[in-house]
Amino acid sequence: MSMSEPDVGLRDRLVDVGVALVAREGAQALTLREIARRAGVSHGAPRRYFPTHLELLSAIARRGFAALGERATGVIGDGTASPRAQLTALGRVYLEFALDNSGMYELMFRHDLLESGHLGLRGTSLPLFGVLVDLVGRARPDLDARLVAGTLWANLHGVAQLWRWGSLQLATGADDFAPLLRSVLDAHLGPEAAV
Fold first, then answer.
1. Spatial separation of the C-alpha atoms in residues 179 and 187, rounded to whole Å
2. Which of 45, 65, 88, 94 could bridge across to 124 with cysteines, CB 3.0–4.6 Å?
3. In this predicted model, what pLDDT tens digit does every residue of 87-106 receive, in sequence order?
């Protein structure tokens, strides 16, 4: 066993504990001290692997982006479905992930983590946005795909947040976000063509 193996094991364990903690108690529970306590190490131990709190939070958030990316890849499949159908599936997965993993979702989109370029989180999050841009470009080649994908993502993010708070259900009377997702796609891509 090399000297680095225990380091990798503890580093991964700290991230695992953080992922479990954010799932149970939300992003506000992710303190270095609490993660260390639950990992069974001294409160200074995480600093050997994560010199700053943001670096540990970033490593935890990367796990969220990986999970969301896997789900997205799973629903897009081999890419033979129409771009609109793939965007619908991707939107549904995004909303389901946000609602099922609210603590992780909140952590993933924290501005301070994304803004810290040296933490590498942008490199983890941007490929998924690239998929969105590609699908929008294929669905509507006449539009600025990057701009439309950005506003579409912002709209989905808003739907997720407002749905989580119960505001959209109250305002629209909807008991499922599917009609809202259709409306978002229609607003950004135009109405779906009749088949």
1. 12
2. 65
3. 999 999 999 999 999 999 99
